[in-house]
């Protein structure tokens, strides 16, 4: 039925066993647990082993989410994998997941929007469910970002971790579901966070590999300010669009990029820190996986209850940003 609101019916997450602590990093680059903790809030991050790849974590998260939604993979009509660290260029990681779980009735694809990828996917799934084009969709954010991290660059190597989080969406009744969603990007900020090598513009050669062109390059300081401003503004926009007030937010899940960014956005939105979920200390920044991992942790810990107003917002390379407001 068209125009029925979409809601989240099940969530799941998965991450590698391997842990990289601040102490481990301090043996690799000139840094310290004290610097990383005070500047970012991160204490450890998960790191995939060389034989582990993105779809492995995505598949576990998706299976869990579908099971908890009490659905069958064949019920899924749309499968979106948000990632900037796909298994391979072709086919999409979405198609690889689809084949592995047996979601044969789905259209599967990847969304490349860095840390905003999950909310981009949720926003697209919401539109397609509301317009009646699909009934059930799964959105998974999955990354093995540590593959693209230069472990000689102390500014970036301390930040990123690996993992996957998934959510199944479908039509819901009553006051539940997604009240508003918004996604935005501004490609003029490309060089604030990018990996220049490996594609058709700067093709992979022995020289580009040796120069580390495939690694992430980041202007962290500039990104910090744009991230705070963009997440604050877009959160206000969805609150207004959804007819809700900042003080009514029960659970705020921002993209886990930096604890100081989280606190700055919460402060500007007047959301008390007791309503803010943070897992950055144990996961670091898992890009597209960050919000769905956090959401599933909240669900499993009963941190979110029926009727709660949940606000999620993200910011990432591109630059891209987004927000989703929902009644749980
Ligand atoms: N250990 C010790 N010192 C360090 C480290 C480190 N790991 N990294 C940087 N420093 C030094 C710098 O060299 C600099 O030294 P200097 O003053 O002698 O030049 C000093 O610390 C301060 O550096 P800043 O870059 O100003 O530090 P800042 O407080 O901005 O923190 C950080 C850096 C953590 C990267 C922060 O800017 C940040 O989190 N930025 C946002 C990242 C982000 O949101 N990315 C987008 C999403 S990710 C995605 O889309 C995949």
Q: What low-confidence regions span 5 or more consecutive residues with pLDDT below 50?
A: none
Structural class: alpha/beta
Physical arrangement of strands within the biggest beta sheet: 1-7-6-4-5
Gross morphology is globular
Helix share, percent? 25-40%
CATH domain topology of the largest domain: Peroxisomal Thiolase, Chain A, domain 1
The CATH homologous superfamily of the largest domain is termed Thiolase/Chalcone synthase
List the secondary-structure elements in sequence, H or E.
EEHHEHEHEHEHEEEHEHEHHHEE
- Beta strand %: 15-25%
| The level-1 CATH class of the largest domain | Alpha Beta
Average residue-wise pLDDT: 97
| Gyration radius, rounded | 19 Å
- The total tally of domains equals 2
Intertermini distance? 21 Å
Main beta sheet strand tally, sense and closure: 5 strands, mixed
Bound molecules: acetyl coenzyme *A
Could you give the count of β-strands? 13
Q: How large is the count of helical segments?
A: 11
